[in-house]
Amino acid sequence: RGSKIADGFRADFVVAERLILEIKSLAVVLPVHHAQLLTYLRLSGLQIGLLMNFNEPRLITGLHRVVLSRSAAAGSPANIPSATPSHGLSEAP
Fold it and tell me: Whole-angstrom distance between the N-terminal and C-terminal Cα of the chain?
């Protein structure tokens, strides 16, 4: 927000200035991909991110929600956030 960020840090989509949507098409989503989204959240000041992997038989399987705590977003060194991703959505039968 008003700050210039290096070209290497570009989120795929920022939705309604509320969340970051990071798109992937990978055989396996690794912890480094969640860390990438956490970095984007910290740099943007946003708290909610979705990591969407399209290389899944069902799209809901590839959806991971990542939430950055307010204290971690503020840059508190005592509170290094842990990315405990979960899609948090129930599947329809």
Answer: 42
Residue type, 60: I
Long-range contacts of 56-59 (CB under 8 A, 24+ apart): 58/91
| Alpha-helix runs per DSSP H in 1-93 | 31-44, 70-73
Helix (H) or strand (E) holding 23: strand 19-24
- With a CB cutoff of 8 Å and minimum separation 6, the contacts of 11 are 20, 21, 22, 40, 44
1-to-4, 17, 42, 45 alpha-carbon distances in Å: 8, 10, 12, 8
Contact call for residues 87 and 65 (beta carbons, < 8 A): yes
Sign (positive/negative) of CA torsion 92, 24, 30, 66?
A: negative
The DSSP symbol for 8 reads: T
pLDDT tens digits, one per residue of 30-86: 999 999 999 999 999 999 999 999 999 998 999 999 998 876 656 544 334 444 444
